[in-house]
Each structure stands twice: as structure tokens, then as C-alpha cells.
């Protein structure tokens, strides 16, 4: 029950494993906090044993009744505590959305991604909006030759957009990558977040052309982690046809018409096990001799 007092209870959650009690979170709830207070999530493992310890924070909570409840939701898509190191990282399967939370100011969440094929892996981070500039530090690493190489880092605040696109990964088949999440000030403790990795074919962009008599030289900016590009052309009201397959990000077309407008667009592809996978097309460039 609400009482206008800043004293209350200290609540600590532990996991019992391998003969030890591992502290997962530590929260202080005051008598003047909301009457219903959500403690940090527990990423529970099957048959895991967990303890909640409640003790007095100043004597004014003595004799005050409290109620504690737990709600269990079975899921394979949640961080598995403790996952605070590379060796205990939770597997992040590509294409699935996972839930996690930082249980304390010192908690670290490690996620492991194993690329099943060559391609560009998009990473998205979601959370509930809170009007606060503090939040999470998110790092992406590649494990190669026995070392962890940092690929990117980003700070996400609680008041950023609810879904943030992180810097992606240009992945190789069989490559091992990690996402680590730490607290940026204590205000993100206990706030649920989501993390998802998904394959995306790196789309080329910024298609442009330079005309010289009956020739046009097309150039575009490269997509991420692709094998090559296909160039398509349409003359007048005709249909688009593939006119080139190139490994570079440029192509010269030598048959511009004076009477009809030519339209060009480009897409990229990745080859996995002999099968091509395609990106979307660029914006269209049109030209006439």
C-alpha cells in the first residue's frame, strides 16, 4: 500500500547453480513507489532454481504487508542467465526475435550469432519508450582467429525510437559474431528489450548516369556483402531485360536511342550453394541520346 515515505525494501534475486548463489538483480522499492512494481525479468533455464530475498530498507517498512507474484511464460527466445561472457552467450538464431533485460547496473548480456550463409545481417533493437536519455550500450564483435574484433558500437537511449536499426554485419558463411549489451546509467535496469538478427541482401543505391553521345555510364554505390550486380534496361514502352551481369559497381551502355527514352535499374545478388538471392531494385535512371 502507498505510503508517502522514501524507505522500503531491498529485493535481491539469485540463481542457484553449481553450488553457488549468483546474484541476478538488486532493486530498492520504496513505500511511495507505484503500488504494483515490476521486478527485472529472469531469463530462466529449464529446472533452474531461483531465490528472491527481501529485507528491510530502514525500519519504516516493518509491519507493512507486501504481495509478491511471479508469472511464467515459456519461450525459447529469451536470454538465458547467466549470459555475461562470450562462453556463456545466448544463441541468437537468425530470423527470430528475442527478449532480454539487464538485471543490475553491472549486468552484461552476451548474444552469439552463427551465420549459416554469406549475406548481410540486419540487427534491430526494440524497447518501450521512457522519457529518459539513459539506456544501453550495444557492441557488435566478430570472432576470428581467436580474437574478438569490435565491428560497431552504439548508445541507445530510453527515449529513442521504439525500434532501432543497428549497424549490420557483412557476414561470411560459418562466421561467428557477438552482440553485447551493457547498461548506460542505471535507468535501463529492469526494462525489457528485444533483439533480432535477419538476413538482407545489400541493395545498391544512388544509381546515376553520365551521358556521352550514344553512351551512358551507370554508377551506383555498393550493397553490403554481395557477390555481384545485374543491370536491367527498358526502351520506350517495352519490357525490362537484363543487359549485364557485373562484379563492379559501374556499367557502360552504348545503344542509347535518339527517339526513345531508355530506363535503367540495378539489383545485387548473393550466391549461396550455387543459388542466387536478390535484393530489391534501385531507383530508375532514364536517358536519351
Keywords:
single chain; 289 residues; mainly beta; 5-stranded mixed β-sheet
Explain what you see.
The chain has 289 residues and is mainly β. The protein is 0% helix and 52% strand. It is built from no helices and 20 strands. The chain has strands spanning 8-17, 20-30, 49-57, 90-91, 97-100, 108-114, 119-127, 135-144, 147-157, 163-171, 176-184, 193-200, 205-212, 215-221, 228-235, 241-246, 250-253, 262-272, 275-278, 285-287. The strands form five sheets. Strands 4-6-11-8-9 form a five-stranded mixed β-sheet, with no helix packed on it. Strands 15, 16, 18, 19 and 20 form a five-stranded antiparallel β-sheet that branches. The protein starts with 7 loop residues before the first strand and ends with a strand.
Question: Judging from the principal axes of the Cα atoms, what is the shape?
Answer: elongated
Order of helices and strands: EEEEEEEEEEEEEEEEEEEE
Percent in strands: over 45%
Helix content: under 10%
Low-confidence stretches: none
Q: Please state the CA-atom Rg, rounded to the nearest Å.
A: 27 Å
Number of helices: 0
| E-strand count | 20
Major beta sheet, strand line-up: 4-6-11-8-9
Largest sheet: 5 strands, mixed
Give the distance, in angstroms, between the N- and C-terminal Cα atoms.
80 Å
Mean pLDDT: 90
Amino acid at each position: 500500500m502507498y505510503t508517502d515515505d522514501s524507505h522500503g525494501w531491498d529485493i535481491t534475486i539469485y540463481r542457484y547453480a553449481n553450488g553457488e548463489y549468483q546474484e541476478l538483480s538488486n532493486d530498492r522499492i520504496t513505500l511511495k513507489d507505484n503500488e504494483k512494481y515490476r521486478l527485472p525479468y529472469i531469463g530462466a533455464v529449464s529446472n533452474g532454481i531461483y531465490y528472491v530475498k527481501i529485507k528491510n530498507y530502514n525500519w519504516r517498512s516493518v509491519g507493512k504487508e507486501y504481495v509478491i507474484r511471479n508469472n511464467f511464460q515459456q519461450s525459447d527466445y529469451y536470454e538465458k542467465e547467466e549470459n555475461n561472457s562470450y562462453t556463456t552467450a545466448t544463441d541468437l538464431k537468425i530470423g527470430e526475435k528475442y527478449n532480454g533485460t539487464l538485471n543490475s547496473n553491472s549486468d552484461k548480456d552476451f548474444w552469439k550469432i552463427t551465420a549459416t550463409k554469406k549475406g548481410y545481417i540486419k540487427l534491430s533493437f526494440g524497447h518501450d519508450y521512457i522519457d529518459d536519455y539513459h539506456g544501453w550500450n550495444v557492441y557488435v564483435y566478430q570472432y576470428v582467429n581467436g580474437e574478438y574484433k569490435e565491428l560497431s558500437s552504439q548508445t541507445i537511449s530510453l527515449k529513442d525510437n521504439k525500434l532501432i536499426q543497428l549497424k549490420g554485419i557483412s557476414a561470411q558463411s560459418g562466421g561467428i559474431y557477438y552482440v553485447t549489451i551493457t547498461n548506460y546509467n542505471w535507468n535501463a535496469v529492469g526494462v525489457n528489450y528485444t533483439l533480432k538478427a535477419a538476413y538482407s541482401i545489400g541493395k545498391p543505391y544512388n544509381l546515376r548516369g553520365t551521358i556521352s553521345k550514344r553512351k551512358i555510364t551507370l554508377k551506383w554505390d555498393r550493397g553490403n556483402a554481395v557477390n555481384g550486380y545485374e543491370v536491367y534496361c527498358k526502351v520506350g514502352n517495352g519490357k525490362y531485360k537484363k543487359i549485364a551481369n557485373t562484379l563492379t559497381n559501374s556499367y557502360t551502355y552504348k545503344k542509347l536511342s535518339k527517339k526513345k527514352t531508355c530506363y535503367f535499374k540495378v539489383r545485387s545478388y548473393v550466391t549461396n550453394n550455387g543459388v542466387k538471392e536478390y535484393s530489391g531494385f534501385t531507383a530508375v535512371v532514364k536517358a536519351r541520346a
